[in-house]
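Subject: for your reference before the review

Hello V.,

The reviewers asked for a structural picture of the protein, and I figured it would be easier to keep everything in one thread rather than splitting it across files. Below is the amino acid sequence we used in the manuscript, unchanged from the supplementary table.
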Amino acid sequence: MSKRKIITGALVFAAVLVFAGGLSLDLGHSPAYGPALDEASEACTVIMVGPEASTDGSVMSTHAADCGVCDFTWRHVPAADHKSGTTRKLYHINQIRTWPPSEGLKWDMVLKDFTGVEIPQAPHTFGYHHSVFGYMNDQQLAIAESTIGNVRKISNPTPTPALNISMLTLLAMERCRTAREAIKLMGTLAEEYGYGYHDGGEMLAVSDPKEIWVFEIMPVGPLWTPESRKPGAVWAAQRVPDDHVSVCTNEARVGEMDLANSDYFMASAHVVTYAVEAGLYDPKSGKPFSWKRAYSPSDGSAVSTEGRRSRLWRFFDLVAPSQKFKPETPNMDFPFSVKPDAKLSVRDVMALTRDKSQGTVFDPVRGLRGGPFKNPNYYKGTRLISVPNVEYTTLTQCRSWLPDPVGGIVWVALGAQDTSCYVPFYAGATEIPKSFGIGDHFVLNRDSARWAFDYVDFHVQVAYNAAIEDVKAARKTWEDGALDRVPEIDARAAELYKKNPKEAVRFLTDFSQSNATSVVGAWWKLGDDLWVKYNHLGLYNAGKRSSGRIPTANPEWWNRAVKAFDVLTEPEKK
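And here is what came back from the structure prediction:
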């Protein structure tokens, strides 16, 4: 190669690095966001779909539990009747903390952190499915969560508050039938007993078969005490219009409120006065009060943060491309919700949870970002809807035309969305497979369902653009298979429910259990098959007992890029 060609190649490679994210490109980045992403935070994407925005009338919500080291086990808490005068203990629940399996399961260890506060027990508590949060009860009440943060001065990191966001969701699951009931219960209890300690500003999507709401709650500072007789939390809620969709991407979504319109807005009585008292809103400014701008402002856009806050724009661009939302638009200026260009099915929403900004300026495989196997999980400079560090993703369905035990479904995908498979648990199911209730990030356990999905994920990363096709094929069998069977299961269960509700519940439990167990077994086998097939970065065919080269391995552009990089680094070596 001539000297001129080498220099030209080096300059081209440098330009590629800039546009691929290898060098810093100034797009108005705000220093408030810091130079790097924290992989253990800010990846909870909650998608919300109103009943008239879905293809079948379902109310849907999703949640990606994004911690990366948190507990991923699932439990079913059965319905129960309680004697008059009994109480319910409140516990400090840290979303992130886990214990070694040898010490005990998280939900056993939580019972050792009693707040000292007990509240009157409900005469009857509903059965529900939960993990880090309560997700679905047997009345079709559903919840999804996203941390949104708050201005620092109102944080309350002291153990004085008796309630946190996990505890609130469990109480709602136990006691409430509708979204409005749940919002009022959680808001009222938080005001009375205090909210905070392990949690700050939080958002919950709260839904039932008829509607879906955004509920946002904040602590009220470290000096709050029950003796003050002041509210121990401040909160606001806004309903998503029935024909709209909305999203929360770790940013407050409730803005200006018309509290006279109780069909669309709810809030604590002191929602404005506390903001004034805390110096977060000046009524003399002439500006209308905005919940998010007062309590949890978030500067920046998809472009100004170099993709770290691009999920909000990406969602609206995907569901309503006709409106031509711009990535330069400040996130605080995006609408609360939007009518989608086309109604969304369950499959559509599942696909949204797996979106990695393909084909956009924030595409994680653009240029050299994805390496020779176009792996979207290498590059960490942007925040995507689908991220590799999730514990699990949920998709809740609430359906008004079916009995509650039949109408509610929480679909669970353990581990990373792109290499996992959604499995359905009906609201009426009274058991969850044992394999879903055990496991820990730091101890490999072949009896744990989550480890089956991590096993597949680990082997996919080696030769991503080839191996992901094997995952898609398996998902077509198991995920699409379950989606196709749901109408049949619905019809059979609804028929049984008319004659014998207990028989219907038994049927739904058996289906949920057997399907989930089969998927876990299939994923363990898939992991084994991937290990053999792509061993040594080759392509091994077990049936033919032959080996070959992965068609997508070591593309020529990658070899050229490596040589160009060698030229760039040669002066450093000398």
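For the response letter, the relevant points are probably these. The two ends are 20 Å apart (CA to CA). Residues 375 and 461 are 7 Å apart (CA to CA).

Happy to draft the paragraph if you're swamped.

O.
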